[in-house]
Design brief:
about 45% helix, 8-stranded parallel sheet, 18 helices, 2 domains, alpha/beta
């Protein structure tokens, strides 16, 4: 990696920080995970932070994710040559510089105005694959234009409208995405108490729907809706829907406008949008098609018709579901409970990992997502058998604190800590991190 020298990225980051400290300069982005979250809270509105940081119900699943890492201890091994450490892995036919991915985070504009584009730039700078969110604040075309040839995947939330799903997948292919990650645990929205207490759902305000408002199929659905409403109004003697301009409508129009110049719903700029029924109709259309609670295993066959890209299923926690996924011919799994955002009291992702891996038997890569707060956590997940590890909320907090530089700092710190943990544990490559690297906590 560009940040590392012969000493490894861990020592390089330490040296940079401590040298700056001689001049009285401390890191702008806190290194400690608790301090990082605290800084993100200060940098965002109360509603935004509640959405980014919150989980389902009493947030017992979020606590369980962290407790699962605490149940394992790392065995240090000494007097081994760890002067050079190799963090690279093989994943989906490519050699990756590190075992990290940036997991998809929706509505990134709540953290920073540059949203997904800032994350994309940071991921590209560190050569870490970025899983573009289905619920992005910037269109996939805008984000990938910022990333150049850097690695990116696309997360698909399976809509109730298959033509729209296909359009998303085709666009992802055209944008150079290397894989499609189908998130399976959002067919219903979790009971998120922080958001409910704030009466705040960003999608209802036009935030986090840029993939939709930039899509030609979705635009047709919106126009059809407006036409039906207008026809109904004309039949009743009314002039058709004329939205009253409210603060919420203004926010919606601005969010849709920021989706990018490609948006087929923006003709004539924000002023025209405010006078148009399209922004409100776009939100209502999104809420209609967002999820499909009737989705079953048989529906996955459609995805193979839409794309030749590798397909990973995200949200697989039970070994029986892992076996069914293999029978469906998928190319990888992501063991994830959505960071504790969907079910309160669910099994921790790290606790679910071993049984899934046993059922998979090494036939496809398995990514661990949820609860990772640093490089030592990643070491434990890799030791238990994960192929790669997803970073989620921490990089969103970094985005809130310092934009693209904040994301880069957080991800670099994860990589640096993993590098040093490997060396201190006597492992010089990811391949050497095995189950014998861990002991169960008393």
């Amino acid at each position: 990696m560009s940040d590392a020298d012969d000493r490894g990225i861990g020592r390089a980051v330490q040296s940079e920080v401590y040298r700056a400290g001689l001049s009285g300069t401390r890191p702008t982005v806190p290194v400690d995970s608790v301090a990082l979250e605290r800084a993100a809270r200060k940098a965002t509105t109360a509603e935004a932070f509640a959405y980014l940081a919150g989980g389902a119900g009493a947030e017992a699943t979020m606590a369980a994710n962290r407790a699962a890492f605490d149940r394992w201890r790392i065995w240090p091994r000494v007097l081994r040559d760890v002067s050079r450490r190799d963090l690279s892995i093989e994943l989906l036919g490519r050699r990756r510089a590190t075992p990290f991915l940036l997991s998809p985070i929706g509505v990134a504009e709540l953290a920073h105005p540059e949203a997904d584009t800032a994350v994309g730039r940071a991921a590209a700078a560190l050569d870490v694959p970025y899983v573009l969110s289905n619920q992005a604040s910037r269109s996939m075309e805008e984000v990938t234009a910022e990333m150049g040839e850097a690695s990116r995947w696309f997360q698909l939330y399976w809509s109730s409208h298959d033509e729209l799903n296909e359009s998303f997948v085709r666009r992802a292919e055209a944008c150079g995405c290397e894989a499609i990650v189908v998130t399976l645990d959002t067919h219903l929205l979790g009971w998120r108490t922080r958001d409910l207490d704030a009466a705040f759902l960003p999608f209802s305000r036009g935030q986090g729907i840029a993939q939709y408002t930039s899509d030609p199929v979705f635009a047709d659905l919106v126009r059809e809706r407006v036409s039906r409403l207008a026809a109904g109004g004309a039949a009743g003697g009314a002039a058709g829907p004329r939205p009253r301009i409210t603060p919420a409508l203004l926010v919606s129009a601005l969010s849709i406008a920021r989706a990018g110049a490609r948006s087929p719903l923006i003709d004539g700029g924000i002023r025209a949008s405010l006078r148009s029924p399209l922004p409100r109709a776009a939100i209502e259309t999104f809420l209609d098609v967002f999820a499909d609670p009737g989705l079953t295993w048989e529906d996955l066959a459609n995805l193979r018709e839409w794309t030749s890209l590798p397909i990973l299923l995200k949200g697989v926690m039970h070994p029986s579901d892992a076996a069914r996924a293999l029978d469906s011919g998928v190319d990888g799994l992501v063991v994830s409970n959505h960071g504790g955002r969907q079910i309160d009291g669910a099994v921790a992702s790290l606790d679910a990992l071993p049984a899934v891996l046993e059922r998979v038997g090494g036939r496809v890569p398995v990514v661990l997502d949820s609860g990772v707060r640093g490089g030592a956590d990643a070491f434990k997940a890799l030791a238990l058998g994960a192929t790669a590890v997803g970073i989620g909320r921490p990089y969103a907090y970094g985005l809130a604190v310092a934009g693209a530089a904040g994301v880069r700092a957080v991800v670099r710190n994860h990589i640096a800590e993993l590098d040093l943990t490997m060396g201190l544990a006597g492992r010089s490559s990811i391949a050497e991190i095995g189950r014998d690297s861990l002991a169960a906590a008393p």
